[in-house]
Design goal:
By secondary structure, the chain is of the alpha/beta class. Strands 2-1-3-4-5 form a five-stranded parallel sheet, with helices on both faces. Strand 3, helix 3 and strand 4 form a beta-alpha-beta unit. The model has no long low-confidence stretch (mean pLDDT about 85). Bound molecules: fe (ii) ion (2 copies). One fe (ii) ion (FE2) binds next to helix 17.
Length: about 400
């Protein structure tokens, strides 16, 4: 079936250019072009679309406002911002993380591949096998109150760091956990951080918010320890924090920018969250996974695939999508065991999380339900980064050692 894409831009010339540029994909995409937000909403109310791509600065209803409406009225539609590179930060704050950004001007290939990527990810997460599995899942971890409040305060007209910090400070246990991690070698900050607002100022809100969320989610699941033999929540949490920090450091080493390194950190924190969802909802089947893996000497994802028809990776990605994380974070979670299936040709957030996961598993010397990893060597060779592995390992080892000495 053809995918339906709606482009919104007040500049008619730009729309015509896009139309020309995308003519070759007319056999796969059905495209519509409108010049304003209200016109877009009107069309969306009449016809189904898979993707909306909008400009940011338009007279009357701007892109941020349009996307907020689209999110409310048609949450299943993939939302893209197509805007000048200089708007990137602005876009991020105005629209929130649940969007994709394409910098203007762009070439047809970049535009096509960005949209195709989002469509593929959605297919993976909403495909037949996943739908069947998700239908068996009754309880998903909830977003903690403090997290929701932080999000709300961010959406307010004038979000201040102090205000957000104060919200986190209200929960003393949370605040001390966050500060402990921020002050550890994982972040390598030059100064000691003494308050959540200071942490937000130094590391950015996304990072601190993700930490609040991860600690909270793991505490929601504490009762699951040993639900299946060998399942240890503390090990998964420690592994998750390490993978987040290593992925961030490796992404930095490879020259990714702040948005990507932050995404690598968040994806690392949550890459195995699908395990918690599976264990809490389907403990019997997880027990089967572990026995099967042991009996037939299968690696965990293969055993999961046999029992569930999918692994914990897309299950986690599905949850992150629901929580409103951006596509790069969701993707990195979805593909953390098999980054090669994305057929990407450059080092990105997915690569960072994939290698960080393997390195942490190596250092823990485990390949169990708590952690599992093996390099996708073919993919890393294709990217031309296979010879960086030794260097990545070294950086992670140093972080780990310094963390232990703290
Ligand atoms: Fe995993
Ligand atoms: Fe993992």
């Amino acid at each position: 079936m053809k995918k339906r894409i709606l482009f919104v831009d007040d500049e008619q010339r730009l729309l015509q250019g896009l139309q020309r540029m995308l003519r070759p994909v007319r056999d796969r995409w059905e495209m519509a072009f409108v010049e304003s937000g209200p016109a877009a909403l009107e069309l969306l109310s009449r016809e189904p679309f898979d993707v909306v791509v909008t400009d940011m600065r338009m007279p009357g209803m701007g892109g941020a406002e349009l996307l907020a409406e689209v999110r409310k009225r048609h949450p299943q539609i993939i939302r893209f911002v197509f805007s000048g590179q200089s708007d990137r930060e602005l876009v991020f704050h105005a629209v929130g993380p649940a969007h994709q950004f394409i910098a203007k001007p762009t070439d047809p290939e970049t535009l096509k591949s960005a949209i195709n990527r989002a469509l593929t990810l959605r297919e993976l997460l909403l495909g037949e096998k996943m739908r069947k599995l998700v239908a068996r899942i009754r309880v998903l971890p909830s977003l903690p109150d403090v997290y929701v409040q932080v999000l709300e305060s961010l959406r307010s007209q004038d979000p201040s760091l102090k205000q957000v910090g104060a919200l986190i400070e209200k929960d003393l246990g949370m605040s001390s956990k966050v500060l402990q991690l921020v002050n550890s070698a994982f972040f390598g900050l030059p100064q000691r951080v003494t308050s959540p607002s200071q942490a937000v100022g130094l590391l950015g809100l996304d990072i601190i918010q993700a930490l609040v969320l991860v600690f909270n989610v793991f505490s929601q699941f504490q009762g699951l320890n040993e639900t299946i033999p060998g399942l240890n929540l503390n090990t998964i949490q420690a592994h998750s924090l390490a993978v987040g920090s290593y992925a961030r450091a490796i992404a930095k080493m490879e020259g990714l920018g702040k948005v990507e390194t932050d995404a690598a950190f968040m994806a690392g924190l949550f890459h195995d969250i699908g395990k918690l969802v599976l264990v809490s909802n389907l403990p019997q089947s997880c027990f089967q996974v572990v026995s099967l893996a042991r009996e037939r000497h299968l690696v965990l994802p293969v055993a999961e695939e046999t029992v569930f028809g999918a692994t914990h990776a897309p299950v986690g990605a599905f949850l992150l999508g629901l929580w409103g994380f951006s596509d790069p974070v969701v993707e990195a979670c979805a593909y953390h065991h098999r980054p090669g299936v994305t057929q990407r040709k450059a080092f990105d957030v997915i690569t960072a999380v994939h290698v960080a996961n393997v390195i942490d598993c190596e250092m823990r010397r485990v390949n169990t339900f708590n952690a599992w990893g093996q390099f996708d060597m073919y993919y890393l060779k294709e990217l031309g980064v296979d010879h960086h592995i030794a260097q990545w390992r070294k950086v992670c080892q140093v972080m780990k050692q310094e963390g232990a000495n703290n």
